[in-house]
Amino acid sequence: MGTLKNCNFPLASPRPVRRRRNSCAAAGMLFLPRHLLPLLRVASPLPCPIIHHRARLLSTSTAASSFEEYLVASCGLAPSQARKTAEKALKEASKASKKAFQEISFSRAFNPDAVLAVLYSVGLARADVAPVVAADPLFLRSSVTKIERRLHALRDRVGLSPPQIARLLLVGSRALRCSDIEGNVEFLISFYGSFDKVLVVVKRNAGLLTANVEKVIQRNIALFRQSGVRGIDQLCSNAPWVLTFNLERVKEFLLRAEQLGVPLTSQMFKYALAVVTWNSREKIAARLEFMERILGCSKSEISAAVSKQPVILGFSEESLLRKTEFLLNVVGMERVCVVKKPLLFTLSLEKRLIPRHSVMKVLEAKGLLSSNTNTRFYTLAAMAEKNFRLKFVDRHNDSVPGLADAYDAARAGGVPLRSAIFAP
Q1: Domain extent for 252
Q2: 213: which of 15, 62, 104, 325 lies 20 to 30 Å off by Cα?
Q3: Same domain, 101 and 13
Q4: How many domains does one find in the chain?
């Protein structure tokens, strides 16, 4: 074999023996064909495949550096963003198996420039491409033929505009790489009512783009309808992952949610279903016992509270304990009142309960608000922010100078409101 002048890289043999391939893998080096150099694979140091004699031996660090340059020059990423994206690609590609890596990386169909050309062909602008590549750098190694067909189907069959395709790729590029997703997208838009709603649920569960519509998704929807569940679209927006579960598993979750005392026809059922899908029976049982202990109430009282606000079973014990101690020891509410008003546990302690309690105490001290802790505080805490600010902050800002600024500071985690108002 001849040599190339001014080349510091050793050349690969046309038919490297096993010992040669193993030594390459041990050294963390990759043989790359010349036609792959625009992207320069940044995958894990896998055994070198058999390639033609003009290949160069490149270290993964050199490949990553060249990949950064490609991301900046061809994809429009900023240098700092390109560096992070290259690192991300290296980490993700290193998880690929030897066979998968060789089939994709060393196929002559692999062409990142052609992938970009397909994106431009469906109307995406350069500014649209950069965030897609940054979110999923391995999209550049997609099969050109497959993604071209799938992207054109999204545009022509589903009717998505170029901006909508770009937004979908940000959350579903991995699904599009491996599956024909146009049928799922079309069905999900008809079910949820709008493309924007579909983006929200797909961000929570990208599996919706690849699940079998007829055998999985539609059967689960039919089960919800047969069970008398109300607001199925809302339920499946709040817990979209249930649509991709097998039918028997969904039946189990429906039963467990109903056992919490939440009727299937209740507006709260979607929250109960979400809780049981995220937490085991044992964890929920432990959380119920914990609430009984810290609130000093019976199982029936806790069950009644859970039926009103099932989401509280998903909160950590630390969160529930801190709010309980605040309501009982600082606000001075009675235990029975706290149990009957479980909505209080769903509100932020730092950004809502503490600042509003401070406003209440300041106004009471100024004689601008009657003192009736149990009912008054719940009313103030549950009120929408706009209404609370209008009735209890802005209205009294002249009588209590600095009240609005102090309230904003308290919500932002600054000086306690009462200290700010009564400071010397």
Answers
A1: 213-278
A2: 104
A3: yes
A4: 4
